[in-house]
Amino acid sequence: MNIKQPLLKLLAKTYEPSTVINQSFGQYDLAIKTDDKGRPILLFIGKKQPNGNIKGERYARRLKIDDVTGAVIKDHWEHKGPATP
Q1: What is the DSSP letter of 8?
Q2: 41-76: per-residue pLDDT in tens?
Q3: Cα 57–79–69 angle (5° rounding)?
Q4: What ranges do the domains of the chain cover?
Q5: How far apart are the first and last CA of the chain?
């Protein structure tokens, strides 16, 4: 399952650093974990369980940044498998 453009647009935003953001996206519940700069690095998408965990799929962002210029060299999301509590 690939991440579609509307969700990628949401994941391109910058959020509060080092937090987990919980929100809804269409029929899915999302949990987005951010790095120390506020960029999303982990995505859990599916249905939220009563204990607060998301049962669905897990994605990790591969983000490679040039140390000198700070320019983004590589940026894509990898499917890591099921996200189950």
Answers
A1: H
A2: 999 999 999 998 999 999 999 989 888 888 888 989
A3: 125
A4: 5-83
A5: 20
Which among 55, 56, 66, 54 is positioned nearest to 3, based on CA atoms?
A: 56
In tens, the pLDDT along 17-49 reads: 999 999 999 999 999 999 999 999 999 999 999
Half-sphere exposure of 73 (CA within 13 A, CB side): 7
CA distances from 56 to 18, 32, 46, 60, 64 (A): 22, 13, 4, 14, 26
At 6, give phi and psi (nearest 5°). Answer: -60, -40
